[in-house]
Design goal:
It is a single chain. A hairpin with a 6-residue loop joins strand 4 and strand 5. This protein has one domain: Porin. With 143 residues, it is mainly beta. It is globular and about 45 Å long. The protein has an 8-stranded antiparallel β-barrel with strand order 1-2-3-4-5-6-7-8. It starts with a helix and ends with a strand.
Length: 143
């Protein structure tokens, strides 16, 4: 996918989700992960409040980069929650195990137990750079 197609795709997703934003709930996460090192994330879960899987939009910013994710989750709503998200990840400054100023697109799975959140994802580079594939893993705390 070309870099110029990513922003319109994100905007289209936000426009389609607009009617559900009024019934949204949110959660935040502080996370230690690769390649972002230390980061904070905010998630908006759309639709009526229920412990079932719901559409979610997530933005995360960290020392080594940032990510935008769209998917489904029920993180923090039950004792054990899970989610699956399509994620765009971009690196900057000094990310772990990858060069800076690269963009990756991939899938990420999340699992929460009470306030503890574990994530793992696989990504393919979509910009110029040396690293073709990236595996990301992290451990976070939900607020």
């Amino acid at each position: 996918m070309k870099k110029r197609m990513i922003l319109p795709l994100i905007l289209l997703t936000l426009l389609l989700a607009a009617p559900s934003i009024q019934a949204a709930d949110t959660y935040t996460v502080v996370r230690v992960s690769t390649p972002l090192i230390f980061s904070g994330a905010a998630t908006v879960r759309l639709g009526e409040f229920s412990p079932q899987l719901r559409p979610s939009l997530q933005a995360e910013i960290g020392v080594g980069g940032g990510r935008l994710a769209v998917g489904y989750d029920n993180i923090g709503l039950k004792r054990i929650g899970y989610g699956l998200k399509a994620t765009l990840l971009h690196t900057w400054l000094e990310p772990l195990d990858v060069d800076r100023d690269q963009s990756f697109l991939g899938l990420e799975a999340e699992l929460s137990v009470r306030r503890l959140l574990v994530n793992v994802g696989g990504f393919r580079r979509v910009s110029a750079g040396d690293d073709d594939w990236l595996v990301s893993a992290g451990l976070g705390f939900i607020f």
